[in-house]
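ESCALATION

Customer reports they have been waiting on this structure for their group meeting. Please prioritize. Original submission:
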Amino acid sequence: MARIAGVDLPKKKRIEFGLTYIYGVGHATALRALAATGVNPDKRVVDLSEDDVAALTKELRNYAIEGDLRKRIAMDIKNLIDIKTLRGIRHRKGLPVRGQRTKTNARTRKGKPKTVGSKPKES
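Update from on-call: job pushed to the front of the queue and completed.
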């Protein structure tokens, strides 16, 4: 089993798609890393040699992935909150950040609906 950047890659998948299981590595980045290391994208993860795994690990160190990327994103959001931008305020309030409507929808960000106003009718 290949373990790159602390992630166990699925054995039966081709390496170009297996690399996308690493947070911060999409298909384009995976293909770029494979081209830089000379590893065949059609190879299965289980068929990789130790040299291939080492080369891919070394190449992926050039990218912000996994913990470093998560930390950077969290710090960026914290910075938006600290400087009190509109995006930061909406992050703090738990509302959609990118201009979506909130009168209806937005249940994923807002959570379970809270009834406001009068009590439900009794019959």
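Sent to customer with the following note: The first strand starts at residue 3 and ends at 4.
Escalation resolved.
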